[in-house]
Design goal:
The protein has about 250 residues and is an alpha/beta fold. About 45% of the residues lie in helices and about 15% in strands. The strands form 2 sheets. It has a 7-stranded parallel β-sheet with strand order 3-2-1-4-5-6-9, with helices on both faces. The structure holds NADPH dihydro-nicotinamide-adenine-dinucleotide phosphate and 2-hydroxyethylsulfonic acid.
Length: about 250
């Protein structure tokens, strides 16, 4: 079995690669940071004796995506599962103060990147007569929150695409699932706050947030249901989170 994971150099994608590898899947891991990809490939190979293919590219560029997918050797082309995970939030400005470059990065990565990946991999799955696409959405794609504007919009788009691609791919036996987490501690907030690690830490202060392993578990569970079961969407939060704005923080 082959699982293709975008954004495997950190966070959810890395934990997902580790979990599938532990369960003897061969993994295609991708991201822009080549050293991290190589280090993870060596770790997975050594610990689990599985095969690993690394592809270093930026999901925002359709030509790079196509070139990377076209380069996949024949024996790797029978992809069973695609995890469309690469994504990010950048900035927390109100709409009237939004930074255009931040908006472009979020829309180009979270929406267009996911589309380019799907456009290139879905035909391979159709050719194989089976497949499973797992899109990483967010609770931010279900409810908006102050200053979440464009990030929320990008994840609402993922929600719509998840529902929509499920209809288009239904005749081909391809299952489509969304995993929609709330707050989870990864490098996500460091990226959102443009490297301000102290500010990022405060996001999780007083709560026991979801971890990348929790999300990997949900992805793996959805991917390993029997063929007649289709998991449409898993919305999950930390125990201390009720929705995008309601948290119980210890010592707050
Ligand atoms: P991390 O920042 O820890 O990891 C993000 C991953 O995405 C990295 O591997 C990064 O790799 C990759 N990535 C980002 N931009 C690009 C790009 N242009 N091309 C290729 N790869 C890219 O964040 P998370 O693991 O938390 O986030 C994963 C997904 O989960 C995202 O879609 C995010 O929106 C979503 N999410 C996160 C939540 C959270 O609270 N953490 C909650 C709900 C959803 P590299 O930089 O090497 O390219
Ligand atoms: C990430 C979760 O609530 O920070 O998608 O938007 S949130």
């Amino acid at each position: 079995m082959i699982v293709f994971i975008t954004g495997a150099t950190a966070g959810f994608g890395k934990a997902t690669a580790q979990l599938f590898a532990r369960n003897k899947y061969n993994v295609i891991i991708t991201g822009r940071r080549r050293e991290r990809l190589e280090a993870l490939a060596a770790e997975l190979h050594a610990n689990h004796q599985i095969e690993v293919l690394t592809l270093c590219f930026d999901v925002r560029h359709s030509d790079e995506v196509k070139k990377a997918i076209d380069s996949i050797p024949e024996k790797w082309r029978a992809i069973d599962i695609l995890v469309n995970n690469a994504g990010l939030a950048v900035g927390v400005n109100p709409i009237q103060e939004g930074v255009i470059d931040d908006w472009d990065r979020m829309i180009d990565t979270n929406v267009k990147g996911l589309l380019y990946m799907t456009r290139n991999i879905a035909p391979l799955m159709i050719g194989n007569g089976k497949g499973h696409i797992i899109n990483i959405g967010s609770i931010a794609g279900k409810e908006v929150y102050a200053n979440g504007n464009v990030y929320c919009a990008s994840k609402y788009a993922v929600d719509a695409l998840n529902k929509s691609m499920r209809i288009d791919l239904l005749p081909y036996g391809i299952r489509v699932t969304s995993i929609s987490p709330g707050l989870a501690e990864t490098e996500f907030s460091i990226v959102r706050f443009k490297g301000d690690a102290e500010r990022a830490k405060n996001v999780y202060k007083g709560i026991d947030p979801l971890t990348a392993v929790d999300i990997a578990d949900a992805i793996y569970w959805a991917a390993t249901r029997p063929a007649h079961v289709n998991i449409l969407d898993i919305v999950m939060t930390a125990g201390a989170q009720a929705n995008t704005t309601t948290f119980i923080r210890k010592n707050a």
